[in-house]
Design a protein that fits this description.
The structure is a single chain. The chain is of the alpha+beta class. It has two domains: 131 residues, 2-Layer Sandwich (GTP Cyclohydrolase I, domain 2); 201 residues, no CATH class. The protein is built from seven helices and 20 strands. Strands 8, 9, 10, 11, 12, 13, 14, 15, 16, 17, 18, 19 and 20 form a 13-stranded mixed sheet that branches. It is globular, with a radius of gyration of 25 Å. 35% of the residues are buried.
Length: 399
Amino acid sequence: MGKGNARGDGAAGKVARRGVDKDAIQQAVLTILRAIGEDPEREGLLGTPRRIAKMYEELFSGIGEDPMALLTVGFEEKHKEMVIVKDIPLASLCEHHLLPFHGVAHVAYIPNGRIVGISKIARLVEMLAHRPQVQERLTSQIADLLMEGLRARGAAVVIDAEHFCMTMRGVKKPGSRVVTSANRGIFRENPSTRTPKWSIGGEYFENCNCNVVCPCEVSPKGPLQERPDQGECKVYLVFHVNEGRFDGVDLAGLNVVIAAHTPGPMGQGNWTVAAYLDDKASPKQQESLGAIFTGAAGGPMSALAPLIKRNLGAKVVPISYRNEGKKRSARIPQILEAVVQAVPGSANPEQEVIKRNAHPLFPELVQAYGVTSRYTDHEFRWDNTGKCADYTSFRWSGG
């Protein structure tokens, strides 16, 4: 965590802003280039020291700035309910290797008679990120500043980020993400403001447009890193909840369908998604399902949330689901007709083909194929009949 208070001040107090010494940075870059055996005079590197100096001036622009100043321009307001700003993009440099980490921040606070402009919260995240950081400290600094600057009754911050020091060096695990949280005030003291406890168990199947077997699951590059064999991914995910509760709300017997399109490798993001909630669900059940399957309540789906670029929203529709031995099916009138079936085994055609440690959400799946597979909604017209499918059972929990 390092020493210093929420503002990032050192032990002696706030450090005055002196500006970035670009000349010194350029000389240091020249030294590094020579030290690694490069020729700083060759054409491609001639302007590199200058470009890096300019880049560092931007990336470290938060050093010496006073983030508290952002919170002094507020408004007296009687609103005392939670204010949430979600999905604030952030990029910073880890102070251990000066490699980037990037992701999103979710910031919430409960006012105590004073609010601040929403843009100031985004600026606060940006200012604190634009200095050498560690994600744990950044998360705490944001929460502490909201408490101090707004005299808030409570503040909660969650940051979900990918670290290049884990993806391009060392353990080299692309797709790994770090999630940190900080709770202050009523969020820490009052259990009712914490993330609700939940647990669900049920059945799942998916059908995509890849030929069996899907390279998103089985590839030398690892899960979600290979380009789908049709160039793009068109997949729907069907969830049937056999039993489960979210903060006391019973979810047994309900269904959820998610349709997702990606223009390239799934791990690169740029997902477009559409969701469908069972019309048998009450408004409270719909809210609970939404929290679980968007990843807002944590759990496995939270790992996919940062990959989504465009959300087409959720529709409440009739969803039917059937389990017939080695066959699974789901139907949404005028939107989805889906039947998948297990592929025959090799030594024993009646035995299911099992994949283990291949899917980012499930440890084990049965390899299947689309018997009937048509999805039509929004701008999409898909027919995945004969293509790759999986089915499994699952149990998730959170809170």
